[in-house]
Amino acid sequence: MASEDVKTSEAAVSTIVNLAEEAKIAREGVKAPGYAILTICKSLVAGGVAGGVSRTAVAPLERLKILLQVQNPHSIKYNGTVQGLKYIWQTEGLRGLFKGNGTNCARIVPNSAVKFFSYEQASKGILWLHRQQSGNADAELTPLLRLGAGATAGIIAMSATYPMDMVRGRITVQTDKSPYQYRGMIHALSTILREEGPRALYKGWLPSVIGVIPYVGLNFAVYESLKEWLVKARPFGLVQDSELSVTTRLGCGAVAGTIGQTVAYPLDVIRRRMQMVGWNNASSIVTGDGRGKVPLQYNGMIDTFRKTVRHEGFGALYKGLVPNSVKVVPSISIAFVTYEVVKDILGVEMRISD
């Protein structure tokens, strides 16, 4: 009798275990696709918020940088960071400091969302290939592989939102005294399409692709590698455990941003000047009084580079570098930290450092 009871109990336990396993499998099967989609959406939201917050925080410096990049050397209005910001404030007020920021956020939110998400997906794919080729299931991404993942993410995000960057550049350059005004993002897009054709929306795309490889690639590679080094090496007692403080992350982001923007900056100047080609009022808008001539008739990236150096010297390739340097450190730092904080708030397990 006792053995029958034992057998009955074992059978009952086995049945319960089997039912529990089946229920778990069924639950996961139903939940997995929706859960994956939700995780992707949360990751995109985190990236978008990171981009919007970081760019708005440094919008005045972003506008000044672009004005310096395309400024007519024969009619200087913006002479340095402090003077330039004061001049914008005096002539255009608070709205002038944030001109083009709405269009910039409309561009940077999807750009940042796609960039961060693409980096995570590219990192996973590259890590899988690396482990398959090396035969080491525990292999980690090297700085060079992170550079590749970051470059891939940058090219995808930049290409997807490039027309918005083109429009943002032109809206940012115009002032209240400009003879012709783009009334907003939609008006600018329709005007450029009507007057210059669809290809005009991708002027400067090639130097952007070339520039985004070291810029975004180095940003991600330096940021992730520096964090990994701090966690493993724990130099100077900076890290007590595997979780880095917000201040430390800001420092990592600042180093990453400084290195990336310094390497890629000349291509950003070339890109911005190419975007002004074909805009009849560009010279007037930049100089404010129509005096002097900017060599705006560029024919491709090489021609733009050659004419810029010939007419204005090699230093012209770094016009606006100071306000950009002041801007890029908090911008990149805030973007990385905001991204990780928002993902923590939304409860996303996957992080860029994973």
UniProtKB/TrEMBL annotation:
> For this UniProt entry, what is the primary localization, expressed as one broad class?
mitochondrion
Q: Where does it live in the cell?
A: Mitochondrion inner membrane
How is it placed in the membrane, per its record?
Multi-pass membrane protein
One GO term of the biological process aspect: transmembrane transport
Cellular component terms (Gene Ontology): mitochondrial inner membrane
User: What are the protein's UniProt keywords?
Assistant: Membrane, Mitochondrion, Mitochondrion inner membrane, Repeat, Transmembrane, Transmembrane helix, Transport
Where does each Solcar repeat begin and end? 38-125, 141-229, 244-345
Bilayer-crossing residues are: none
What family does this chain come from, according to its entry? Belongs to the mitochondrial carrier (TC 2.A.29) family.
Q: What is this protein called?
A: Mitochondrial adenine nucleotide transporter ADNT1
Q: Which species is the source of this protein?
A: Chenopodium quinoa (Quinoa)
